Amino acid sequence: MSDALxxxxxxxxxxxxxxxxxxxxxxxxxxxGETLALEVQAIxxxxxxRHYFAALRNLWSNLPERLASAPYAQSPETLRKxxxxxxxxxxxxxxxDCGKAATAxxxxxxxxxxxxxxxxADARGPIVTRSYARSQSVRAMGRRxxxxxxxxxxxxxxxxxxxxxx
Length: 166
Fold this sequence. Notes:
alpha+beta; 5 strands
């Protein structure tokens, strides 16, 4: 059995009150008197999560016709990832020296058209920079960062739909 497990608790102002299923998990995994190190993370609202993805689908379905062929306009997911990048929520970035500008252009184009995870790839001289959006999973992004990224993404997409961004 792993020593790591997820428990739910409520902060009472004076301490933590464990929910019954969590208390049962702890009793099954550890002995009385054992010292545990806890990493505390606020639980994100699933209502906020559902609102976010519904709003994204709505914004995507209302993109102007002139943007229909844009790489990020292929699905609500590609729109979300592009908006994350555009608003500074960048995850992994790869920088590749291709030796020549022409090679860099070909490599960047191949990255942009490759199936799989959406990325933005740019060639500047012999250098290709490939960027992926930061993950918004519950594990990768806490409540505050999720709320900041959600607001930034929805604002950016709204501006795109109304003609204020590109």
